[in-house]
Specification:
single chain; mainly alpha; Arc Repressor Mutant, subunit A; Four Helix Bundle (Hemerythrin (Met), subunit A); three-stranded antiparallel β-sheet; disordered N terminus
């Protein structure tokens, strides 16, 4: 027997997941107006689960609400990208160190299967599929380190970083370099090489530094306007 409120919660989750996925893969581009009425009619649900989804997305900084104007898909905030990348780098290098210091052999079968799936996604030029597998690859490392909560927290606070990564793939194509770096990370884990693994992870997460100027010039409306500092690694004179 279904518990009271279970159906409502399930509908709310479904609406949230659909909207979040469409925001993250840029089907809903930054700046897109978000109407409760339009979305509820399109998804054939009441406005309540849509409103609840908006609240969750707003808490993740994926939807911006402006009084008297409405709700919009948030523009990418480069200050937030910088902080989200710092969070990811801090947690991911810590997880690598924990894995490498583990004296027991690591069960890497799922990780290696994920790498095979990444290779297949690249061969068919499946950008969205590759990005999902990329995220799964990192999640598997956290699972191996018995730190799934850390990954969940990190994922909740990586929305702007992940969107700019997706955008970078739109510009340069689905790059095999990400896959190659994943393969190298696994090799270094097996070789118990902490120093090189941490260096490779930092390089892997920092690739956007080389691509940001192209993205800002090609998609200026996708980014939040702000004062740019010469010392900011994401700064650019526009």
């Amino acid at each position: 027997m279904r518990k009271k409120g279970e159906g409502k919660q399930s509908t709310s989750n479904q609406v949230y997941e659909i909207l979040r996925r469409n925001i993250m893969n840029l089907t809903l581009v930054p700046g897109t107006p978000m109407s409760e009425k339009d979305i509820s009619e399109k998804m054939k649900v009441s406005r309540t689960p849509v409103r609840e989804a908006f609240i969750r997305l707003s808490n993740e900084a994926l939807v911006s609400v402006f009084p008297q104007k409405g709700s919009f898909v948030s523009r990418i905030d480069l200050d937030r990208v910088r902080e989200e990348r710092f969070l990811r780098e801090s947690l991911e290098t810590s997880v690598l160190a924990q894995l490498i210091r583990n004296p027991e052999p690591l069960p890497l079968r799922e990780v290696k299967q994920n790498l095979e799936d990444q290779d297949a996604a690249l061969n068919r030029e499946d950008k969205a599929g590759f990005l999902e597998l990329d995220e799964e690859f990192h999640a598997l490392l956290f699972d191996l380190a018995d730190q799934p909560l850390c990954f969940s927290v990190m994922k909740s606070f990586s929305s702007h970083y992940r969107r700019i990564r997706y955008l970078s793939m739109s510009v340069s194509g689905v790059s095999r370099s990400n896959y190659d770096q994943h393969v190298e990370l696994v090799r270094m884990i097996e070789a118990k090489d902490i120093s090189r693994a941490e260096s490779e992870m930092k390089h892997h997460l920092g690739k956007l530094d080389d691509e940001k100027e192209i993205l800002l010039r090609q998609y200026p409306d996708y980014f939040m306007e702000r004062e740019l500092s010469v010392d900011d690694p994401f700064s650019i004179n526009r």
